[in-house]
Amino acid sequence: MSMRHGLVRGALSIGGARAVTSAFNAGALLVLARLLTPHDFGIAAIASAVLYFIVSLTQFSIYQALVQRPTVDQEHIDTAWTIALLRSLAIATFFVVAAWPLAYLYDDWSMHRVFVVIGITGAVMGLYNPHIVLAQKGMRFTPMAVYHLCKCAGLVTVVVLALIFRSFWAIIIGNLVGVALASIVSYIIIPYRPRVTLSRFRDLWGFSGWMFLNQLCETTNWRFDQLVISVLVPKAQMGLYAISYSLAIIPTRETIQPLREILFPGLANLTDDLPRLLRAFVRAQSTMAAISAPLALGLALVADSAVMVMLGHQWVDAPRFVQIFAITSGIGSFVSCTAPVAMALGATRIVFLQQFWTLIARIPLVLAGLHFYGLWGAACAGLVCELILGTISVGYVRRLLGLPVRDQLRMHLPTLLALGVMAGAVLSLTPLVYSTFSADLLRFVSLTTIGAIAYVGTSLAIWIAQGRKAGAVRELIEIASQFSPARFRPAG
């Protein structure tokens, strides 16, 4: 099987599963925004920020080390699972011990029960079957797709509990149900009886050591603002900030994350052929940006109507935050393949340094933004940090693959031009759409359609004007053609 065909199959498997999960996420968010208060979302956001920060402190990327290694035996797999078990025990113990101090920190004694439950969630989250990650090395992505789909049960539980209790506990308990079911199913779809051993710890740690530091910095990068805000502002404002962020990153998260998951094992199989690896990187990076960047910018352009349709009028202050968060995530889509290619080459130190230098900039910028301009300042600081991360990433790609900066910028030029046309079309026609339609749904659909036509039309026009040369548009057309009905029609 060719790498492209394998990645396409993976994109269909994992991407399809993530699409279903994304639909459930969007539906759950829409319902919860109308059932729960900003205060409820604030408590859930605090719990989530603390959980993922602690998870990152113990995240060694051991399962990913299995994928990167050229050869893996049963001892490696059992060692990876044992490390995951020890990590889970450490997470649960921490939250049991720290539940009361954390509740005191957030000035809400009732939250100690929340921290105990999310500690259990964090412990269960890391105990899934290592074989579903290892399967991706052989371009088998269905097990991971099933794993993601099982998390939908948690979203259904969240909605049902919210309808019954109208409390933040719906989110806390629903998340636990989702990760628990997914972990259990992972052992059913690929049978595995783990054995406790650390005999291959040194083999795996060479890859995982830098990845642990990277995970710590990356999570702190993305959660630092929420960790600080959750201590300094009322929970209702924290809820506004958190739900705006959750809505804004849906387009890029649900397109980039599944593609990154399948890209790493694909690139890891090409490390002995650097010219081929370079070509694969260019195709993947330009295509991912061409898909996800317009989704992010599109959401920013229609944020007013999108928030009213998806969240309701009680979130009237959310659109401006959705705009800044969506633009921030869109910028990240242009350098989203840096980490997978560095991991494939075993250059995990670069993956860490990428996040480390960004974190060094983020801490003072977020604190200054929050001090002088409140929540808006903190959000804008995140955008500046994403620009810094992008600049650093471009430099590291040049070091890893020898790809000049001008060539990295040139491969995104058609996408950037199409984005400019899309933004101009939507902004110029927004007053007309708002004067024509009074319903938020019609405004949202109209502006989204205008943006889509402008972007797709411009992208195709540029591609044709350039002589239909290789690039994101051609890559997408070729991928689509592999799964056209004519391809599967019997001969004769």
Automatic annotation (TrEMBL):
It comes from the Bacteria. InterPro entries: Poly_Biosynth_Transport. It holds the Pfam family Polysacc_synt_3. The chain crosses the membrane at residues 43-63, 84-106, 112-134, 146-165, 171-192, 288-309, 321-343, 376-397, 409-429, 441-465. Keywords: Cell membrane, Membrane, Transmembrane, Transmembrane helix. It is found in: Cell membrane. CDD domains: MATE_tuaB_like. GO terms for cellular component: plasma membrane. It is a multi-pass membrane protein. Belongs to the polysaccharide synthase family. This is Oligosaccharide flippase family protein. It comes from Qipengyuania oceanensis.
